[in-house]
Amino acid sequence: MEVKIELLLGAKVRDVNGEKVGRIEEIRVDRSDNALLVEAYLIGASAVVDRLSAWTLVRPIKGLLKSRRIYSLYDVPWQDMDLTDPRHPVLRTAKSDLHHAR
Amino acid sequence: MKKILQITLGIVTSVGGFLEIGSVTTAMQAGASFGYQLLWAVLLGTLCLIFLVEMSGRLAAVSKHTIVEATRERFGFPFFFIVLIGMALVSFLVLVAELGGIGLALQILTGVGFPWWAIPVSFVVWVMMWKGTFSLIENGASMLGLVTISFVVAAFKLHPDWGTAAHGLLPTFPDDKKANYWFIAVSILGASISPYLMYFYSSGAIEDEWDETYIPINRIIAGIGMSFGGFLSMAVLIVAALVFHPKGIDVEKFEQASLLMTTALPKWGFTLFALSMLFACFGAALEISLSIAYFFAQGFGWNWSEDLTPSKDARFCLTYTVIIMAAAIPLLFGVDPIKVTIISMALTAVALPLAIAPFLFLMNDPIYLGEHRNGWLSNTVVTIVILLSFVVAIIAIPLEIIGS
Amino acid sequence: MHLVRDVLDKELLDREEEPMGRVDGLIMQLGERSQPRITHIVVGGATLWERVHPAFGRLSRRMSRWWGPKRDKEVRIPWSRVKTAGRDIKLDVEGKDTGAIDWELWIAHHIIEHIPGSGHEEADDGS
């Protein structure tokens, strides 16, 4: 099945129990030989900060904000993502089993 | 040697970008209505611009990307598209004002009304871009623009009380006409901190093939070049303060404005004013047309360079051709360039956050800038400029309604 | 490597290091159990506009049927043609063979070259 990456980005992800997890903000890939293989989907508010390489700005502000939400970044391996409906991606695990990338 | 000659990039960006119909009109209104009181606004605008221009040059020299390219790559197409629309619309209005400014200058020199000049003027601007190279435009426009030094000469000849004038560099507030005062202050900021200036400058740095070794000279160009323009604007304000303010003349029409320098320079003042407006607006028209075309070309990934013949960067050339033709149309119908100027300065102020906010992120990006990322001083200045631009954006339109 | 940070929206250069547009989209192939792979870069047109809003994508498709180079399908470049991916993405292709610069060539031939001084005449002399 073909999926357009640029339309997958920003899609809201739910876990296997229907709980909201976040949005797909970035996709980590591995370049091997002549192929580009998807390793993981990065989900959550702070993937955007990552994408914008803005950590040098955010870290000092984080303390002031005292917000955990801006720091939530989930690294979801490709095996754990069900993209049968690309507009509504679903995890194959529960949110609590997800591993924080940071 | 080439690096020293680069200073002309700064001067033309400044003369064409800083000193144009917007900054002259706002400086004149400021001087006529409030004497020296608004000099601080010109100073503030100049300082902000120096920092922003230095950053746009540094970004281009180190990352080999223009601001536009970096914006698309970092923020994605949808966000980029919003910035494109905002910047293109505002810049287009300013272009109409500049072409109108050239027309008005020719009107007072020849007596032939400005609508008749709309087509010939646009044609000449277009030919310069079609056949010219980037260096020709850079150097040619800056040489011609030097006639604006006559504003400084006029200011000195009127022997202002420099001490009193210097007080104007610190903000003081009038007792009455407060809304008008703040409206002019906001317009001065919108006229000084023109986004198209930054886009033109960063594209110019790429056209001139800057690299990391240009970082020191970039600072000098930004500092001296933009100060030069600020200095010229202040001269206009001071002359207006001495000539119009005591008589309570409110400068509404271009014909009144043309008398700006006749007190100081009775024989040549009128002609020098007309020529200054002519060349300053001409330089600005070239810069703005190029900036808009660069925005489209760089954002969409087309070929772009003033040094290429048009058949090699067809979409880029088609873009500026269409823009210049379209900008002539309102003038053909007699739309008053001064009114367009006033509206476009306020709208520029409103659109400023859109142009500057992405900068904060771009200038801290280690991938683009490596060790040349912003230090705490530059970051502080950009943050202040962004906050200032939000405040200005919010109050500009209400002030326009109440105060103008 | 990250797709959004390092690939999407980056400039594409062909074999001669001439610009040929930007990475406007990417195609991922999903298998039942196999690891997903990125197979194609998509350039231009409706793909780009769809990212702003689907209605823009539809409008773009409709307009491209009326004028300009007539293309039925979007321009896709296989990922295998990518040589390097750094500041920009260098491809091992000729720009004009991919269809990515069809619009540039169409506008050059149909509009720009009819205006005097476009430089086309000099090029015809074999320079």
Model description:
The complex is a heterotrimer of chains A (102), B (404) and C (127). Chain A has one domain (5-97): PRC-barrel domain (SH3 type barrels). Chain A has 3 helices and 7 strands; from the N terminus they run βαβββααβββ. Helices cover 22% and strands 35% of the residues of chain A. Chain A is of the alpha+beta class. Chain A has helices at residues 5-8, 45-51, 55-65, and strands at residues 2-4, 12-14, 20-32, 35-43, 74-77, 81-82, 90-91. Chain B has a single domain (2-403), classed as Amino acid/polyamine transporter I (Up-down Bundle). Chain C is of the alpha+beta class. Chain C has one domain (3-118): SH3 type barrels, CATH 2.30.30. In chain C, 31% of the residues lie in helices and 24% in strands. In chain C, β3 and β4 (37-43) form a beta hairpin. Chain C is globular. Chain C starts with a helix and ends with a helix. Chain B binds chain C through residues 63-65, 69, 72-73, 76-78, 80-81, 130-131, 300-303, 309-312, 314-315, 317-318, 367, and chain C through 4-5, 8-12, 18-22, 24, 48, 51-52, 87, 103-105, 107-108, 111-113, 115, 117-120, 122-123.
